[in-house]
Design brief:
- The chain folds into 3 domains: about 270 residues; about 90 residues, Immunoglobulins (Immunoglobulin-like); about 280 residues, Glycosyltransferase (Alpha/alpha barrel).
- It is α+β, with helices and mostly antiparallel strands.
- About 50% of the residues are buried.
- It contains 18 helices and 40 strands.
């Protein structure tokens, strides 16, 4: 009997162990086992940016997303703007443990079905066709699965037993094919330039076989793929684009239907693997008096410890335990469990680290001046590097030459561009399609990691900079800026406040738009996709010579050229943009008064005119106006009239502001959903900021009435942040939420200054601490070069160098549905996680100065 029981137990343990190794569908409809998650179209391709490497069949391998893009694709190594399949249907069958997806390419009347089912220690992936591949896609349609290069750098692979090393830099072979063989890209655009003879590049595979083993030496990244019926080809997508991934691919067979392809994918799973705890805290540190709460992110199979400690490192290099306290369990948020460790009682200035079990954090500082310089890199380096139409030097390097002296041409009508730009049936200007618009090669900033000018972002930056100037009188001078010679020199004072010089630089471009085009424009961007994906020095995006249609391409007379590389202005008019620009120019005119009086005068003239013309336009809306802009235009004049009143003191503007602000606040505080005051507070000039900004210019009755709305606002935000352990808004979308956290804190700063009895200073510190490291996934500071440990890679114009531009603020965390927050620091090409934008930088500069102001309250 004992032997039988022993045998039974052994069989049970073996059976359970086998079961534990199998991937199973969980309640969130993806496959899961310890250390491995396989997602099947929990995230889908979108139609605007096409392939963002965040869709299809994906794998999270020991806590890191290493696989994406599992789909039937039409290229060996698809680029961002190559055609993507549309999800026709997705079905989850709990009984058979199968997820099935139907994908379609409408242009080719071609659909395929993919099913994913657990098998052994992995999954079986099968492709089904109801009808044969269209003839034009034979040899082109295949099933692809993409592997993150940075996860496999310095590792090996085996193809049918033959060993090789993953290349750190793309070095495989390519071939040239006629452009007639190429599958068209987004809206007829092409990533290949026109210098060749109608050719494009096709990469050869690194290796081909029936079985591929990736990283057999690394248990966390070890994956085996076997094909039952077709060759597996391993490609390096970086031959075509620096953000390409390693691609495993099998072509679909011609003239076949039913099940036409089967792979077996087995990711290694480390037995009893648990993700290491991640301790979130501010990498900059803390002032002695503020709250200090670390948030500990734990694997769901981990057991929280009850205690943690704070150690000080003294001048002799000795580690001294200064505090030992309780770790309090918070609960589950998305896929992880969380606990909080409050060490606010530690107030002595010094260098510290947190110890949780055997885990020690890097060091941070407690002291009264920790926030004094945290905005310097953003103003001293990042914004100068973003300056358009200027040569930018820093010590021994040139960041970029003076680009776009050929600005700009009128965008052609009825044109669908990339990056969201569209020109409608009219130009809304006096210019004809592709006619030169004069005097536009002045001022402005590169919007982000690319090189276009986006007017809405410029407005936000100028408004935020004026706020910083007027509230904090920031007069730091570390940058030499000469508009006449188009030259900028970083770390070289020139006797002028950098903030005013940046306000001037942005305003120059806005005024140029208003004076030469007639109104603010959606943006100014290069015409060709092969320019748009440019990396490196912006001066090389164009030949800097005005386009001359009488010359041949690449022909020049020394003053002009026949090359159509000049940027286009997208000029369809919107009342929303007119109102927004009028507000920014009204603000700029105040800041520039006494510094550049001519530009201040011109700004105010433009602001008044835009406001009057926008008012008239709202009475007679255009039939073809962009619905989004039309919606945004409603109520867009509230801030405009406020700023015109502050600038001019004309009572008519104040009267109109008072007529509109109370109904606007009623809408903002009317609920707790996405349209509530909580969300309306985002965006710098939106939400309560308008009402709060007005307080010094209104009577006591205004402030008294506003207090009731502020009380509602506090109730809303307190309820809204209860759902996560960080106490700040976390945006779960395709673009990270750093800017929202920053603007949430900015709004709270204005509330605190006016009503300190309602909102205390901690509501301001929380958002900044979140951005500086107390957030999910990692504890890196999201501001490059700020804090002990900060982002090492970001999506700037130098992203191909796998580095950062100091002071850039990255978007932060994006949600991979249904429950995985991510911010990669070994792969800089995810713009939703890592692309630094100008308005985000300007908002951060304001918040950093606001926190400095709060610190003064406690000194």
């Amino acid at each position: 009997m004992l032997k039988q029981l022993t045998l039974f137990l052994a069989l049970f343990i073996a059976s359970y162990s086998l079961y534990a190794q199998q991937l199973r569908l969980n309640e969130l409809d993806y496959f899961e086992k310890t250390g491995v998650n396989v997602l099947v179209y929990s995230n889908q391709y979108n139609g605007m940016f096409n392939d963002e490497k965040t869709a299809g069949i994906e794998m999270i391998h020991h806590g890191v997303r290493t696989v994406t893009g599992g789909a039937v694709r039409l290229q060996n190594t698809p680029e961002q703007w190559d055609l993507i399949p549309k999800v026709v249907s997705r079905n989850v069958d709990k009984a058979t443990q199968t997820i099935s997806v139907e994908l379609g390419y409408k242009d080719y009347n071609f659909n395929s079905k993919i099913s994913v089912t657990p098998k052994g220690n992995g999954v079986e992936i099968s492709v089904f066709l109801d009808k044969p591949i269209p003839q034009e896609l034979v040899g082109k349609a295949g099933f692809n699965l993409e592997f993150l290069p940075s996860a496999y750098f310095e590792k090996t692979y085996l193809v049918d037993g033959n060993p090789a090393i993953f290349p750190k830099y793309p070095a495989s072979s390519t071939q040239i094919e006629p452009i007639s063989n190429k599958i068209p890209q987004f809206n007829g655009h092409t990533t290949f330039d026109d210098r060749g003879k109608g050719e494009f590049i096709v990469p050869y595979p690194l290796a081909t076989g029936k079985a591929i083993v990736l990283a057999p030496e690394d248990p966390e990244r070890f994956v085996t793929i076997k094909s039952l019926d077709a060759d597996l080809m391993l490609f390096d997508g970086r031959n075509l684009t620096q953000n390409g991934w390693f691609v495993v691919r099998s072509l679909l067979p011609a003239n076949k239907t039913g099940k036409v392809l089967t792979w077996y994918l087995e990711p290694n799973a480390i037995t009893n693997w648990k993700r290491e705890p991640m301790i979130g805290f501010s990498q900059v540190g803390y002032t002695p008096s503020q709250d200090k709460v670390a948030v500990i992110e734990l694997d769901k199979n981990d057991t929280p410890l009850t205690k943690a400690s704070v150690f000080q490192i003294n001048a002799e290099g000795k580690f001294i335990e200064k505090f030992k306290g309780d770790v309090k369990v918070w609960g589950k948020y998305l896929r992880y469990n969380y606990a909080r460790f409050d060490f606010s009682s530690v107030k002595e200035s010094g260098v510290y680290y947190i110890q949780y079990g055997n885990q020690k954090t890097n060091t941070f500082v407690i002291g009264p001046n920790v926030y004094d310089k945290i905005w310097y890199p953003t103003m001293d380096v990042w914004f100068p590097v973003q300056m358009d139409h200027m040569e930018v030097n820093e010590a021994y390097r040139i960041w970029h030459g003076a680009p776009y002296k050929d600005d700009c041409l009128q965008a052609p009508v009825n044109h669908q561009h990339f990056d969201g730009y569209v020109q409608g049936p009219t130009t809304d200007t006096k210019y004809k399609s592709l006619e030169r618009i004069p005097n536009m090669a002045v001022g402005g900033w590169f919007d982000a990691g690319d090189f276009d000018i986006q007017t809405g972002s410029h407005n936000s930056v100028i408004s935020s900079f004026v706020d910083t100037w007027e509230n904090f009188k920031v007069d730091r001078d570390e940058t030499y800026i000469d508009q006449k010679t188009r030259y900028v020199d970083i770390h070289r004072p020139d006797g002028k406040p950098d903030l005013l010089q940046q306000i001037e630089h942005g305003t120059l471009n806005l005024v140029a738009q208003c004076e030469n085009i007639g109104h603010p424009v959606r943006g100014i961007i290069v015409p060709n996709l092969h320019q748009y994906h440019h990396l490196g020095d912006a001066i090389n995006e164009t030949d800097n010579l005005p386009y001359n249609p009488n010359l041949k391409p690449y022909e020049s007379d020394g003053l002009s050229s026949g090359t159509m590389d000049d940027r286009w202005a997208f000029t369809n008019r919107s009342s929303f943009l007119d109102y927004q620009t009028a507000a920014s120019l009204a603000e700029a005119s105040r800041a520039l008064r006494g510094y550049n009086n001519d530009l201040a005068d011109r700004s105010l003239v433009c602001a008044r005119r835009l406001f009057e013309e926008a008012d008239e336009a709202t009475k007679h809306p255009k039939e073809n106006e962009d619905p989004f802009m039309k919606m945004m235009g409603k109520g867009a004049d509230v801030n405009t009239v406020l700023q015109l009143y502050i600038t001019t003191k004309d009572k008519k503007y104040a009267d109109r502001f008072l007529d509109q602000i109370w109904p606007a606040l009623d809408r903002m505080t009317g609920g707790t959903g996405r349209n509530s005051g909580f969300f309306a507070a985002f965006g710098g000039r939106s939400g309560f900021n308008q009402a709060l900004t007005a307080i010094p210019y209104m009577d006591a009755a205004y402030k008294a009435k506003l207090k009731g709305y502020v009380l509602k606002y506090k109730e809303i935000i307190d309820n809204s942040v209860k759902g996560n352990p960080y106490g700040v808004p976390i945006i779960t979308s395709g673009w990270g939420g750093s800017s929202q956290a920053i603007n949430w804190s900015i709004t709270n700063y204005f509330v605190h200054k006016a009503f300190p009895e309602i909102i205390d200073a901690e509501y301001v510190y929380k958002g900044l601490n979140y951005v500086l490291g107390c957030h999910p996934y990692s504890n890196l500071s999201f501001v490059s070069s700020v804090g002990t440990r900060s982002k090492k890679m970001a999506y700037g114009n130098n992203r191909a160098d796998f580095t950062v531009i100091a002071g850039g603020v990255v978007p932060g965390l994006i949600l991979l549905n249904p429950d995985f927050l991510e911010n990669k620091d070994d792969w800089p090409f995810f713009w939703g996680e890592n692309e630094c934008i100008i308005d985000g930088g300007a908002w951060y500069v304001f918040l950093a100065n606001a926190v400095e102001d709060l610190v003064k309250e406690t000194k």
